[in-house]
Design brief:
Blueprint lengths: L1 H40 L5 H10 L8 H9 L3 E6 L4 E5 L11 H7 L3 E2 L2 E7 L3 E6 L5 E3 L4 E3 H48 L13 H48 L4 H32 L8 E4 H15 L5 E7 L7 E4 L1 H18 L4 E10 L2 E8 L6 H7 L18 H12 L3 E3 L7 E8 L3
Parallel strand pairs: 9-11
Antiparallel strand pairs: 1-2, 1-5, 3-4, 4-5, 6-7, 8-10, 11-12, 12-14, 13-14
Length: about 450
């Protein structure tokens, strides 16, 4: 989320920067466009400046050559009107220039135009200087004046500026949209694929890389789970097939064969035993599934493991254990008083599954030893049997993920669902499982962090 906000902020800052740059560019274009007009119409030849120069180079009676040349060079006519309204001298005045002005005439043209020429005046003790500019040079208001050339250029300038600004903004929008789309589109396509349960791979660099990596991780998990689901079904089918075949075989014998009561009793015991095995398998299946998807709430409490082990061994012996099996336990002195925070029901279930595995894989009998000891910051619960054990290849296979996570199609060496449940229980308690090599038999160790 932070990377996405950083990405959006980066683009917002870029847009603001470009808008500021556009404003600055408009100012420079405005200055470049109107600099000549302003320099000409409001510079040396401006009415205020020309009135000042002409006033210095004339008197009531005449104007000198400097003043005449300056007026002619700027296409300006001029006249001096005395207090009686008569022109005492003129320069380049229109042919219909009046010979005499009344007070009313002066009042009218002093505010704007004379013979359609924009005029500007300056008074002194002897009379009034009048400057007449070309008809299309200035647009006069009552209290101000504007350059006609500037007013003519202004609409075109505004139109061109508006078009250029719109084009510039569109280019910013198009470029930004293209860049955002280039980065966002693969992510959106990836999300769409995930919503359909399909695998995907998103390759995005820059600020959105974290989001792309998250989508890729989610895709991996979905793919992993889809394959695991297929393996899960295959694995469960494999585990159920054997007891189910036995049940069907002995049921068929009872139904078709002429057998005495003692055989029927023996067959029914075999059927019952295998039915119980399937019942336990289904129970383990449900519990593994709930642990895998966090559907099994843990009832965490502080548990003294030495007490839990003694209670488990006593219950197992009380339920009865075949004569060919011996169940022993040993608790080290340093482990005796220690406790961990755990769900005691699940720890009991893990011990039960490990003992049942030893019984299942050693039909001729074995010794089963449960030990409790410490190692660094861990307390170690070990189950060891001196039975047939596992080959090195089988032991390595045992350390691989099971149906919920396995990607290997081989089923012949896979351990039972009971061992998977043990792994899930240990993982739910943030512990770890070790399967150290032994000269004889099989050993598995459950390591849990001690309470701090």
């Amino acid at each position: 989320m932070k990377s996405y906000l950083k990405y959006i902020s980066k683009h917002i800052i870029l847009v603001i920067f470009l808008i500021v740059a556009l404003i600055v560019l408009n100012i420079f274009v405005f200055i470049a466009t109107f600099n000549g007009v302003v320099s000409k119409d409001y510079g040396d030849s401006s009415p205020k400046n020309m009135l000042s120069i002409v006033s210095e180079n004339c008197s009531k009676a005449s104007i000198n050559d400097v003043g005449i040349q300056l007026l002619s060079a700027n296409n300006i006519w001029a006249a001096f009107i005395d207090k009686e309204g008569k022109p005492t001298w003129t320069v380049n005045v229109p042919s219909d220039f009046p010979k005499k002005f009344s007070l009313n005439d002066v009042a009218i043209f002093s505010k704007g135009y004379l013979l359609d020429y924009p005029v500007f005046i300056e008074t002194n003790k002897d009379g009034m200087i009048i400057l007449g500019y070309p008809k299309d040079s200035y647009f006069k208001l009552t209290n101000n004046f504007f350059s006609t050339m500037a007013l003519k250029k202004l609409p075109m300038f505004l139109l061109i500026t508006l078009l250029v600004d719109c084009l510039f903004i569109f280019m910013i929008y198009y470029r930004s949209k293209k860049k955002i789309t280039r980065n966002i589109e693969p992510i959106m396509n990836g999300i769409e694929s995930l919503s359909k349960g399909e695998s995907t791979s998103v390759d995005v660099s820059g600020d959105l890389k974290d989001i792309a990596d998250g989508i890729n991780q989610a895709s991996y998990i979905i793919t992993h789970q889809n394959v695991a689901r297929a393996n899960w079904i295959a694995g469960v089918s494999h585990d159920i097939r054997t007891p189910l075949s036995i049940i069907l075989g002995y049921s068929d014998r009872i139904k078709t064969a002429a057998i005495d009561d003692s055989h029927i009793r023996n067959y029914s015991e075999i059927i019952e035993s295998n039915c119980i095995q399937i019942k336990h398998l289904v129970s383990d299946l449900n519990l593994v599934s709930m642990l895998e998807y966090d559907m099994q709430p843990l009832q965490i409490e502080e548990v003294r493991l030495s007490k839990l082990v003694r209670s488990f061994v006593a219950d197992t012996l009380n339920r009865g254990l075949a004569e060919q099996y011996a169940l022993n336990f040993e608790i080290s002195n340093d482990a005796e008083p220690l406790s961990i925070e755990c769900d005691s029901r699940l720890i009991n279930r893990a011990l039960s599954n490990l003992v049942n595995n030893s019984v299942k894989h050693n039909p001729d009998g074995c010794n089963i030893d449960i030990t409790l000891s410490t190692q660094d910051e861990y307390i170690k619960l070990s189950v060891y049997d001196d039975g047939v054990g596992l080959s090195e290849e089988q032991r390595k296979e045992l350390e691989k993920p099971h149906y919920m996570n396995a990607l290997d199609d081989r089923l012949d060496l896979r351990h039972g669902l009971g061992t998977l449940l043990v792994k899930q229980i240990v993982q739910a308690h943030h512990g770890r499982i070790e399967t150290p090599a032994t000269e004889k038999g099989f050993k598995i160790e459950l390591c849990f962090l001690l309470n701090s």
